[in-house]
From TrEMBL:
Disordered: region residues: 448-467
Pfam families: Exostosin_GT47
Protein's recorded name: Exostosin GT47 domain-containing protein
Signal peptide bounds: 1-41
Start and end residues of each Exostosin GT47 domain: 70-382
InterPro entries found in the cross-reference section: Exostosin, Exostosin_GT47
UniProt keyword Transferase present: yes
Top-level taxon: Eukaryota
Primary location group: Golgi
Membrane topology according to the record: Single-pass type II membrane protein
Polar residues composition-biased segments: 456-467
Keyword annotations of the record: Glycosyltransferase, Golgi apparatus, Signal, Signal-anchor, Transferase, Transmembrane
Similarity comment: Belongs to the glycosyltransferase 47 family.
Length: 467
């Protein structure tokens, strides 16, 4: 009887213990699942491939709510020749729509690989904006709205970098003529739009990441917010940090997944492979080459994407502690972002460079930045690099693995990746944009030559842009 009583007492206790254990296990699984969600969704999508016909990863299935978005964007319905038509995409059926259906992997036009990818930001940003409207998965930081009056900014969806890459290599005398023709047609389109005339283009966002993109039109689009890789080929009156946005290149080497190659596993101290003899500001490369080519544990050699150049660069960066990022024909290069995703601590030598998202990212925590005049002093650079301890390098290495997500372009976009970071940077420009527009309107009621927004203005392009 006593034994039976003891068992009856133990039975509820055992039941309560089992219930508590089950609840703990369930909550732990939910925690792990929520933490792995975005990465798992990205892996699922990459498994489908852009060319497949599968469904995108499950998302909310509804359009993004403009009331909850960080940035509301009005995007022009430009004809496909300005955007996805450059990828040989055609609207489905006779009289089809302007945009692809991005809710299905098979509906997303493929972007050409190789070096074309490094300046592909217009593709990723436009896809994300279409996703916000169509109900495909997206963090909804930026939302497409149907009326310009409800928008913070107006996006001009011209794939300027792709247009340059596609048309600039045409054999003379037609070299680049189609790219210039597209730019002319774009200017005519904008000049006819009331959204442009209302603000003189000051709330318009133009994607011109390739240094030679928008080469003809840029001087007439000076009031706009440009999204660029750097300011190397723009005068300050056209592009500057006050109004414009610096965006990262898309890296061309693969991400270093599951990287455990720490300090002792990287035999090369300092690595550089690329074009050595450059013009203009890139002359510092050849000076550094002659200073460093015979240094122990330094790899400094010519390289290109031809052959297996990307594979060689991938292996070289992953086997190196520090990677040189030296100014070339322009202040920036894709090499910086290749080194970031290779977790090779960047050594940046480019006095005129502007770095993406530097208002929220402290680059000194994961890179070394050196003035050009100091770098070419004999012994200076090697003494600096060799003076960085194993512990200090390891801190930067770990930080690289934390920040690399901010430099990742992907579709569907993920929270705080490059696409979302660009939208957030543009959103931080909105108060300044509004200030400029409001100041522009101070004396508008007294102007005798006010633009009639109902019809295109007949004056010159620059006269249409109020100063």
């Amino acid at each position: 009887m006593a034994a039976a009583g003891a068992a009856s007492c133990r039975s509820p206790l055992a039941w309560l213990f089992a219930l508590a254990a089950a609840l703990f296990f369930a909550s732990w699984c939910l925690l792990l699942d929520s933490a792995a969600g975005p990465a798992a969704a990205a892996r699922a999508y990459h498994g489908l491939g852009l060319g497949g016909g599968g469904r995108l990863p499950a998302g909310p299935g509804t359009k993004c709510d403009p009331a909850r978005a960080l940035l509301r964007v009005f995007m022009y319905d430009l004809p496909p020749e300005f955007h996805f038509g450059l990828l040989d995409w055609k609207p489905p059926g006779f009289g089809g729509g302007v945009w692809p259906d991005v809710r299905h992997a098979g509906g997303v036009p493929e972007y050409p690989g190789g070096l074309n990818l490094q300046h592909s930001i217009e593709y990723w940003l436009t896809l994300d904006l279409l996703a916000s409207e169509q109900g495909a998965p997206t963090p909804c930081a930026a939302v497409r709205v149907p009326r310009a009056a409800d928008a913070d900014v107006v996006l001009v969806p011209f794939f300027a970098s792709l247009s340059f890459n596609r048309h600039s290599r045409v054999v003379p005398p037609a070299r680049g003529s189609e790219d210039r023709a597209l730019q002319r047609r774009l200017l005519e389109y904008l000049a006819s739009r009331p959204e442009w005339r209302r603000t003189g283009g000051r709330d318009h966002v133009v994607l011109a990441h390739h240094p030679n993109g928008m080469l003809d039109a840029r001087y007439r689009l000076w009031p706009c917010v440009f999204v660029l890789c750097d300011f190397g080929r723009y005068p300050p009156s056209v592009a500057n940090l006050d109004k414009d946005v610096i965006a990262p290149y898309r890296h061309v080497v693969d991400n270093f997944a599951n990287d455990t190659a720490g300090y002792g596993d990287r035999p090369t101290l300092l690595y550089f492979q690329g074009a050595i003899y450059r013009k203009d500001g890139g002359s510092i490369r050849q000076e550094l080459y002659y200073l460093l080519k015979d240094e122990k544990d330094v790899h400094f050699s010519f390289g290109s994407v031809a052959g297996n150049g990307i594979e060689q660069a991938t292996k070289g960066m992953r086997a190196s502690k520090f990677c040189l990022n030296i100014a070339g024909d322009t202040p920036s290069s894709n090499r910086l972002f290749d080194s970031i995703v290779s977790h090779c601590v960047p050594v940046i030598i480019s006095d005129e460079i502007e770095l993406p998202f530097e208002d929220v990212l402290d680059y000194t925590k994961f890179s070394v930045i050196v003035r050009g005049a100091d770098a070419v002093k004999k012994g200076f650079l090697m003494n600096l690099i060799r003076g960085i301890s194993r512990e200090e390098w390891t801190l930067m290495w770990n930080r690289l693995k934390e920040v690399e997500k901010h430099f990742e372009y992907q579709y569907p976009s993920q929270t705080d990746d490059a696409v979302q970071m660009i939208w957030k940077t543009i959103a931080r420009k909105v108060p300044s944009i509004r200030l400029k527009i409001n100041r522009l309107r101070r004396f508008s009621r007294f102007e005798t030559n006010k633009t009639d927004e109902s019809t295109p203005h007949s004056s010159s392009w620059l006269q249409n842009q109020a100063s």
